[in-house]
Structure to design on (390 residues):
């Protein structure tokens, strides 16, 4: 019973946190606002989360996982054309997934700049994406589909940075066309690696 | 005489600010530290600068101008080969100029995330770079050197984002090779636009 209550209190704080962060953004949100919204005891809240950075860290878990799922799409093309088609598709899906979570990602973007903990979490996610891309680049290089001119890890960093840039740009706009954004960055990536 | 003293006080604060920001970074620097370092009156300091964001804004003026000078290099190539050579040269010079100002740019990068005023200043600088690149892209497109497939402004944003990424990466490392970094990003840009 006590454990159930404990889980329920934690969930209340997470739900309340989501409401407050979406309403006030990261910098302007406070634990006091979250606690009031959750209707839990002031001291109790800090048993579960040390501060708002800690709480936000847990809240964005799902958001980041959604993006990472797109990042882990299978990549075993049998031809250059197939490789290009997968790349364009994946870039589009990545931005589309970002748009689906636009409001929360705007807060994530704000928090990356201000919170060391969230910056670190995003850096970990970035490593995940870069490793996944580097694996794909190596696959394409080993199967003689892509140029071996550059190190797979360097290329992966470059390609993810283009995707990340397109993501932040798109979620900050009100009328972003995911396919168009993906098409532009894919063109340069494909021209550089698959020409 | 009074005006001279006033300029001298302002300069003292700027010099002291430079010392403190380089020593403590942006988030950990305080106006109190700067005032102590400058040896001016507490109340006097705030006549010149409202807060540390205001002071930092003035301090990084020069740093940003240094980068912008590289961004305004003349670009009137007569052939595709000449265009490619200028682009590679300019990307290298941009990162080299960044490395020359590495310590201050590390603080700038930190401040962009945390300070609305500094984020806005960097956004203005970014617009400067993007306009300058867009002009170059249009020149190359009009002279049938570059592909007309994409809008010059979109291409400019993409190319500056690669330069900016390479800049932040390079200044955060201790052994960055400007030529190597510039060569990687230039390869993708040139393949996409000049293939």
């Amino acid at each position: 019973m006590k454990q159930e209550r404990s889980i329920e209190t934690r969930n209340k704080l997470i739900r309340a946190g989501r409401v407050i962060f979406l309403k006030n953004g990261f910098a302007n949100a406070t634990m006091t606002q979250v606690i009031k919204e959750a209707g839990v005891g002031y001291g109790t809240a800090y048993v579960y989360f040390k501060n708002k950075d800690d709480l936000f860290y847990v809240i964005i878990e799902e958001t980041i996982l959604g993006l990472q799922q797109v990042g882990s799409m299978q990549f075993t093309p049998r031809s250059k054309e197939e490789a290009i088609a997968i790349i364009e598709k994946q870039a589009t899906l990545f931005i589309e997934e970002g748009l689906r979570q636009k409001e929360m990602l705007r807060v994530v973007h704000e928090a990356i700049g201000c919170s060391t903990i969230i910056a670190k979490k995003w850096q970990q996610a970035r490593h995940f994406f870069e490793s996944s891309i580097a694996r794909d680049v190596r696959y394409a290089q080993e199967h003689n589909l892509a140029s071996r001119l550059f190190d797979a890890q360097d290329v992966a960093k470059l390609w993810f940075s283009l995707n990340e840039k397109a993501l932040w740009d798109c979620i900050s706009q009100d009328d972003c066309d995911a396919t168009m954004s993906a098409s532009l960055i894919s063109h340069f990536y494909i021209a550089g690696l698959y020409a």
